[in-house]
Amino acid sequence: MQPIRVLIVDDHALFAEALAARLGREPDLVILPIAADSRRALALAGTERPQVIVLDMTLGAESGLDVLARVREDHPDVRVVVLTAMSDLDALVQAVRRGAVGWLSKTEGADLVARVIRSAARQGGWIPPEVLGEVLRRLVAGDARDAGGARLLADLTPREREVLQCMVDGLGRAEIAERLGLSANTVRTHTQNLLAKLDMHSALEAITLAMRAGMRPGSG
């Protein structure tokens, strides 16, 4: 069996080094240099070609979710297992939706971590059994919301979709007007119209719905 190349991404040096040393004793695991932040994680993912990334959810001021999204975008074949001290079910669901195939607590033993890494490398995964049912329920409910959001977006005019894309890109009204060659008043009218069609009361709600339906920054 081919050795499994594993990249640990964790800013807690003592924990990461201890985990690397323990997993390094497994004959089928090759432990790559540790990454303590997102920049090094993404660099090593490109140069070291890991099959599995073991990712913490908090990397100093950075979110592991952002690293997860970038890894899945740049290296879609890499399998990501979250290993975290967090017990937030919402974070777990978000991680799965962004492509994580496993979720482990840092209180788990190294034997289980190794088993989950092997499962991930074989296209398997692992979610704690005690929360699996609730995670699946939320994922199904989220899929239904996403489908509804996509239907609502289909009702927008091309210009309203352009304005919404600018909002997703983080632009303010004046910046949207400049990008699209419109007056600020026209942008305000389009914004009011699209909020009404989406049955939303704020730009933040509209942006959240748009991103759930697949609209992403810079995709316009």
From TrEMBL:
Q: What SUPFAM superfamilies does the database record attribute to this sequence?
A: C-terminal effector domain of the bipartite response regulators (SSF46894), CheY-like (SSF52172)
Please verify whether the record's keywords include Phosphoprotein. Answer: yes
**Residue intervals of the HTH luxR-type domain:** 149-214
Q: Does the keyword Transcription regulation apply?
A: yes
Superkingdom assignment: Bacteria
PROSITE patterns recorded for this chain? HTH_LUXR_2, RESPONSE_REGULATORY
Domain Response regulatory, first and last residues per copy: 5-121
Which SMART domains does the UniProt entry name for this protein?
Answer: HTH_LUXR, REC
Name of the molecule in the record: Response regulator transcription factor
